[in-house]
From TrEMBL:
Entry keyword annotation includes Transport: yes
Homology family: Belongs to the leucine-binding protein family.
InterPro entries per UniProt: Leu-bd, Leu_Ile_Val-bd, Peripla_BP_I
Keyword field contains Metal-binding: no
Entry superkingdom: Bacteria
An example Gene Ontology biological process: amino acid transport
Signal peptide bounds: 1-26
Name this protein carries in UniProt: Branched-chain amino acid transport system substrate-binding protein
Domain Leucine-binding protein: 43-389
Biological source species: Halobacillus aidingensis
Keywords for the protein's UniProt record, in alphabetical order: Amino-acid transport, Signal, Transport
Length: 402
């Protein structure tokens, strides 16, 4: 009897050990985002990396608020065909190491099915993991590198890349400049975000006959940039493209006003928006900016849902900025992909996003299209100019290929 019991106990222990090993293996698969268990059929979990307190928090904060607001609104309207969206995110303060840890937590602990990311450096560093984990990834970075499907098969771009924005600006300069051949300066920060479009802009400028005569590196958190602006003043460029966020852009404009520089400044998308005008004041007057997403004060059909949501919170469109719109639109495109998905897991959502064709965003952004061969949704932008303390759109959507 004792021998039989011991033998049975040994068999039971072996069975339990085997089951433990199987559970451990299945846990690894679940972390890969391709497991259907990432959704219970009634809820789909989306992870998010926010920059609230880091170097780009000036634009990151309203962007994150727009993402959160859209899913709250969507859930109040019944979700995606009855499926509720649970957005799980945190502030990683524009710190790559923190971003890596947060990504792993979202994948392993929260078992999310897709990610809404933020910065260029962390997005590019995570590309291989994202691919291995089969997690569709919408970043707020519009780095040209993310177009490469061999290296970034699960990354999607929801707006024109920084390089495409820069090329469009250079084309606009070439077509609209009066007088001799135009000259150009490039003002950017020494981060992956800041450097991202620089070589592409220089190459395209050389191709179309716009001479780059100066480059100045200015920290993304700069509160003064007098030495850099003095250097630029010596080169006397007709135009200067700014690849910064609101704070550093305002610093550049204030320094230029103090020094009496009459260069035409043109900000790429993160340099553009209400915040730069609020910080720079009248120094922002006449600045041009690339517009990838609508201003909340435009008369557009797509703002109706946002207005309805804000009114439910006792707020109005006057209480939000263009970067709020940008976050809202990004979350909306992800929801469209989820709605197309046959399975609510990473692979299913990726295929769902690839089915999006000419998605009409009601004017909030250019229509987006994705496919198996193309994860860059659009290359179209508009331009706006600060007039009487407010950005006014001065072009229709266009791209440098037009």
């Amino acid at each position: 009897m004792i021998k039989t019991y011991a033998k049975s106990t040994m068999l039971l222990l072996c069975f339990m050990l085997l089951m433990g090993m199987l559970v451990a293996c299945s846990g690894d698969e679940g972390a890969a985002g391709g497991d259907a268990e990432a959704s219970d059929g009634n809820t789909v979990k989306i992870g998010a990396l926010f920059d609230i307190t880091g170097g780009t928090g000036d634009v990151g904060t309203p962007y994150s608020e727009g993402e959160k607001a859209y899913y709250e609104y969507l859930n109040s309207q019944g979700g995606i065909d009855g499926v509720q969206v649970e957005l799980i995110g945190d502030d990683y303060a524009y710190d790559m190491a923190k971003g890596q840890r947060l990504y792993q937590e979202l994948r392993d602990k929260d078992n999310v099915s897709a990610i809404l990311g933020w910065g260029t450096a962390d997005t590019e560093a995570l590309r291989q993991q994202v691919a291995n984990d089969q997690l569709p990834y919408f970043s707020a970075s519009y780095s040209e590198n993310l177009k490469n499907l061999e290296e970034s098969p699960y990354n999607f771009l929801t707006a024109a890349t920084y390089s495409d924005q820069g090329r469009a600006v250079v084309q606009w300069i070439k077509e609209n400049h009066e007088g001799d051949n135009p000259t150009l300066a490039l003002l950017y920060n020494d981060t992956a975000f800041g450097r991202s479009p620089i070589e592409d802009i220089k190459a395209y400028a050389a191709e179309v006959g716009v001479e780059v005569v100066d480059e100045q590196v200015i920290p993304v958190t700069a509160t003064e940039a007098q030495s850099q602006m003095l250097n630029m003043q010596e080169a006397a460029p007709d135009y200067a493209i700014i690849q910064q966020t609101w704070g550093a852009t305002a610093t550049i404009l204030r320094e230029a006003q103090t020094l009496g520089i009459d260069t035409q400044f043109i900000g790429l998308n993160w340099a553009t928006g209400e915040g730069v005008v609020e910080i720079a004041g009248d120094a922002a007057e006449g600045m041009l900016g690339v517009v990838t997403h609508a201003f909340p004060y435009e008369d557009l059909e797509g703002l109706a849902e946002m207005e309805e949501y804000l009114e439910s919170k006792g707020e109005s469109l006057e209480d939000v900025s263009q970067k709020f719109v940008q976050g809202w639109v990004t979350a909306k495109i992800m929801a469209e992909g989820i709605g197309n998905a046959e399975e609510l897991n990473g692979e299913g959502i990726r295929k769902g996003i690839e089915q999006i064709k000419d998605m009409d965003l009601g004017g909030l952004a250019a229509p987006v299209t994705f496919s198996e061969d193309n994860h860059a949704g659009t290359n179209q932008v508009r331009l706006a100019e600060v007039k009487n303390g407010k950005f006014e759109v001065i072009t229709d959507y266009f791209s440098y290929e037009d």
